[in-house]
Write a structure and sequence with these properties.
With 260 residues, the protein is an alpha/beta fold. It has a single domain (3-259), classed as Rossmann fold (3-Layer(aba) Sandwich), CATH 3.40.50. Helix content is 52%, strand content 10%. It has twelve helices and five strands. The chain has helices at residues 3-9, 15-21, 41-51, 63-69, 79-90, 104-113, 133-146, 157-165, 170-194, 203-208, 210-220, 243-259; strands at 29-35, 58-59, 97-103, 123-129, 199-202. Strands 2-3-1-4-5 form a five-stranded parallel sheet. Helix 7 (133-146) packs across helix 8 (157-165), helix 7 (133-146) crosses helix 9 and helix 7 (133-146) crosses helix 12 (243-259). The model has no long low-confidence stretch (mean pLDDT 91).
Length: 260
């Protein structure tokens, strides 16, 4: 059985909160950031949140996220109701805008569990990718192997030691490279099949000019881009990058070309 559908088969709901959320109007503008892992989505969502204009986009559609949130602040008897209430909870009240982010595999399973996907038709789609797939795969390999994904979290000495001791592994990096490619292909099939033309942005654009990206997103979700002011600290996140990342990326690119 679909793991997400199984959660909704026996939901443990906060009924009083559910009744309160049913009184909250849906946001006038809602959006989904379609991502691939290690493409800068956490940084982007943090920056969006800090503008205080476009809601607080979070990762809501994974089975783990649903199981945790459905019993707390985002109750829902069905996937559709859970998603609707999640956006009510995370919306920018003043500007009436809300969004979320999801990887393809998360979205695909959630879509399969939905009885009526009609609510999705009102979404604007922002598609975030990374041009340098080799660097993305290396980053994902390092993160999944050490369980160190973000710089703003206090990590254990054990996790830091595991990252430091990690060695280059072509097969492992290739596995994650294929994983990323499969997610890109999934999103593109969905967009094509639904006649959706998402607004496309890249990790590299976030690095170059996050302010311009935020203004462009604001216009897409019907917020005045002139109202977007970057805070002093756009995000708490810093890149988890060391000399090995670039060395491994170059090595992987060379070996990948040989194996193709």
């Amino acid at each position: 059985m679909n793991a997400i559908a199984d959660i909704f088969a026996h939901p443990d709901l906060n009924e009083p909160l559910l009744q309160e959320l049913e009184k909250v109007p849906d946001p006038r503008s809602r959006y989904l950031i379609a991502i691939t892992p290690r493409s800068g989505s956490t940084y982007l969502c943090d920056a969006i949140k800090n503008t205080k204009r476009m809601g607080r986009p979070q990762e809501l559609l994974s089975a783990n996220a649903i199981a945790n949130r459905i019993t707390k602040n985002m109750p829902g008897r069905t996937p559709e109701e859970y998603l609707r209430n999640g956006l009510r909870v995370t919306k920018s009240t003043q500007h009436d805008v809300s969004g979320l982010k999801a990887s393809w595999f998360q979205f695909e399973l959630f879509l399969q569990a939905m009885g009526d996907p009609g609510y999705l038709q009102g979404f604007k789609y922002i598609y975030l990718t990374r041009h340098d797939l080799a660097a993305q795969a290396v980053s994902l390999y390092k993160a999944t192997s050490s369980d160190i994904f973000h710089s703003h979290i206090q990590h254990t000495d054990e996790a830091l030691a595991k990252l430091e001791a990690l060695e280059y592994d072509y097969k492992a990096i290739k596995y994650w490279y294929d994983h990323i490619v499969a997610q890109e292909e999934g999103w593109r099939r969905y967009f094509s099949g639904q006649g959706i033309s998402p607004y496309c942005i890249s990790y590299e654009e976030l690095e170059a000019d996050i302010g311009s990206v935020l203004k462009a997103i604001a216009e897409i979700v019907s917020v005045d881009p002139k109202s977007i002011r970057l805070p002093e600290h756009v995000s708490e996140l810093k890149k988890l990058r060391d000399g090995r990342s670039s060395q491994w990326t170059q090595r992987f690119q060379t070996e990948l070309a040989v194996h193709v």
